[in-house]
């Protein structure tokens, strides 16, 4: 789609000027086949100047018939103009080159050729070409989404046109300024400029003007969601383009009608319009327009639920937009892909494309750019208030009432300034809301990342624990099965039985510990453990664990309970009991026979700090860092070759934190370890 760059009236102005430059040479060809006549004149001329004019005119004649021939003729015109260093010829040749580049959707190349005209027009003081070049450059910038640059060149074109009293070009410049504000969502300001442009066009009897104005009005009403009004103006624009044969505008109007039908869920009509637009663009090999049609058809398929074909077309359009640096089209492609991935429940990719779209939009609609643009608009309106008011006024005042008219104009100017200030404030507030929305999106993105990390950790934990179950649980059961088979077949000697029984007891204790921990962990993961806060006598609980663990005859170590008799905590009894049991059992495991384990508490404001100290083998700094991580499940054998599960400390951390505490350790290799955890005091909880 040629969007604002060639929906504007600059196109017909460009063609009209070119025709006026060469028309005197071809009056004899009127009423005959234009292309054949031009080619015949080409064959019979030896003048370089005439040849350049004919090549440009042939390029214009071929541009909607055979694009490659049109490009070839324009290239020849440029080559001769540059060889002969003819400034006037460079102006018309570069102009046609820029037009053809834009016709194909290559607005970066169009911008290059259009800018090449500026220094020549300035050097030769050619105000007509200068105003035209400024306007074309503005059109190129609108299409690639650089609205502040577009606004600057349109207003410069207006100033030059106004200085040379070219009302047609003034109307074009104001029309295109309206397009800039339409793209920024400032529809009221856009309507004002379109109205002024329309009245100026009527004064110069511009018969093509209504088609362009109706197209823009239809687009504005479409964006506002007023579909009946949009249909009225767009169909009116299409009728005029067909009647007046405005080939450059017709595909743009067709695309807008396609969007209108898509909004109304008239998918059959929407597809038909997009196909028509693609066919029209194909004639000029307009890759931008073809990509826009693909995006439109992709959106139709997306609404119809055909996600695979929709993704294919939208992705192709996105690739083209990146190649052409067409950021507006790139934004729309990213938005559509975000919606598509959301429909597919792929929220990660949906968020990625939403972020791409928002980042691009923020780069195009930055607060600094909008503020500068509106300040420039205020200055522009102030400097040109006479023309603005005259265009909006329905009558022309006589020279005799000039003083009265000036007073009237000043009053209107005050209103216009007030409106501009209001719009500036509205844009500022809109920018603030956008900033808040962006912050919210970033927050949501961080939350999703956090959830993704947690999910990955849970998967790793799951894999770890399934490995524990499959390996550690199978081994003792197989050992028990083997011993029972030996006993059944009377293959065990009496002196071997105590040794086997001891080994079997160790295997059984390890299996019991593993099963208990696995069951507790499973309940935690399913949130099936209900915390029941009760008063717990910490000394009594430690004594009970000492008694239980001593009865297992694990190892000859001294167990000392230094907790005060009245130390009472408020917590879930089963959870804290598991914490004590696991920590004491670990201390026994890593303490050699003859060692000592001490359990004591220290009061800190509203909580107890419980410590379990051993004089065992200690823990290396590297291992300390990963002991409590869910994904590590670290386990090593004790001093008597006792096996571990890797689950105990993970459960301890989970249970302590669920009871409002925290857990940590201090350890030194070959000197022992102390595990600490906190638990709330009973008095504090009951208060």
Structure notes:
The chain is of the alpha+beta class and 687 residues long. The protein is built from 29 helices and 7 strands. The protein has helices spanning 3-7, 10-22, 34-43, 48-62, 67-84, 87-103, 107-123, 127-144, 147-163, 167-183, 187-203, 209-224, 227-244, 250-263, 267-283, 287-304, 307-324, 327-343, 347-364, 367-383, 385-392, 402-472, 474-488, 497-525, 538-551, 573-589, 621-626, 648-658, 682-686; strands at 533-537, 558-561, 568-572, 596-604, 607-614, 663-668, 672-680. A 5-stranded mixed sheet has the order 2-4-5-7-6. A two-stranded antiparallel sheet has the order 1-3. Strand 4 (596-604) and strand 5 form a beta hairpin. Helix 9 runs parallel beside helix 20 (367-383). The longest helix is centred in the middle third of the chain and has 71 residues, at 402-472. It starts with a helix and ends with a helix.
